[in-house]
């Protein structure tokens, strides 16, 4: 089984591409979705998060506003949160890989793939990209997003041009839905045709 990584900066259309890959029958592990599950109502991480960051959880799971306020701009606090979250996500990812070990290939959706150096053990990296003006328009349309917040997020991520330079495969979403879907189908056919060594 070959393992490919899917990544892209905020607002590039990675979630849409992930959904298209799933519709094509590709097993896909979504790291963000797994974090939401682990931190949601009854989530396995709630006791540890509450113990470390009192008052940030409740019946609906993690209060993202309160937890964000506790860690944003505080590197040590962010590291403490990551020490709780990352091992749990890694366990879930291992279970996903075991479940799909008979498949020719799988995709791991990892937003900060290059930032966390997670690309090193992969067969290849798929980068989702779009023009900067479209990225900005998409992100600023999100509830609660501001231009300043968008700039901060972009500043923390590796630039799109660098991600594209390091990509093995690129999906452009700055075009029509049909064209993006065509690119995804072509990619799935390409990956499915590759021989497993």
Automatic annotation (TrEMBL):
One of the entry's Gene Ontology molecular-function terms is: ATP binding
Q: What keywords sit in the KW lines?
A: ATP-binding, Coenzyme A biosynthesis, Cytoplasm, Kinase, Nucleotide-binding, Transferase
**Record-linked InterPro entries:** Depp_CoAkinase, P-loop_NTPase
Q: What is its main location?
A: cytoplasm
Q: Organism's domain of life?
A: Bacteria
- Report the EC number(s), separated by commas if there are several: 2.7.1.24
Query: What residues does ATP bind to?
Result: 11-16
- Span-the-membrane segments of this chain are none
Give its localization. Cytoplasm
* GO biological process, alphabetically ordered: coenzyme A biosynthetic process
Residue runs in coiled coils: none
What pathway is it annotated to? Cofactor biosynthesis; coenzyme A biosynthesis; CoA from (R)-pantothenate: step 5/5
This enzyme catalyses: 3'-dephospho-CoA + ATP = ADP + CoA + H(+)
Q: What does this protein do?
A: Catalyzes the phosphorylation of the 3'-hydroxyl group of dephosphocoenzyme A to form coenzyme A.
Q: Which NCBIfam families match?
A: dephospho-CoA kinase
What family name appears in the similarity comment? Belongs to the CoaE family.
The record ties this protein, via PANTHER family, to:
BIFUNCTIONAL COENZYME A SYNTHASE-RELATED (PTHR10695:SF46), DEPHOSPHO-COA KINASE-RELATED (PTHR10695)
Designated name of the protein: Dephospho-CoA kinase
Q: Which gene encodes it?
A: coaE
């Amino acid at each position: 089984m070959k393992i490919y990584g899917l990544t892209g900066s905020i607002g590039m259309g990675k979630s849409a591409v992930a959904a298209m890959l799933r519709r094509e029958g590709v097993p896909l592990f979504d790291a963000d979705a797994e974090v939401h599950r682990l931190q949601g109502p009854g989530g396995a991480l709630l006791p540890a998060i509450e113990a470390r960051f009192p008052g940030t959880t409740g019946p609906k799971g993690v209060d993202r506003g309160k937890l964000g306020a506790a860690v944003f701009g505080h590197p040590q606090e962010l590291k403490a949160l990551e020490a709780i979250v990352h091992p749990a996500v890694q366990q879930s990812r291992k279970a996903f890989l075991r479940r799909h070990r008979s498949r020719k290939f799988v995709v791991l959706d990892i937003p900060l793939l290059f930032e966390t150096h997670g690309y090193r053990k992969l067969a290849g990296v798929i980068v989702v990209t779009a023009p900067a003006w479209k990225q900005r328009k998409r992100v600023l349309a999100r509830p609660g997003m501001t231009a300043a917040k968008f700039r901060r997020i972009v500043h923390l991520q590796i630039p799109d041009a660098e991600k594209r330079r390091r990509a093995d495969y690129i999906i452009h979403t700055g075009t029509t839905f049909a064209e993006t879907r065509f690119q995804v189908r072509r990619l799935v056919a390409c990956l499915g045709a590759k021989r497993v060594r």
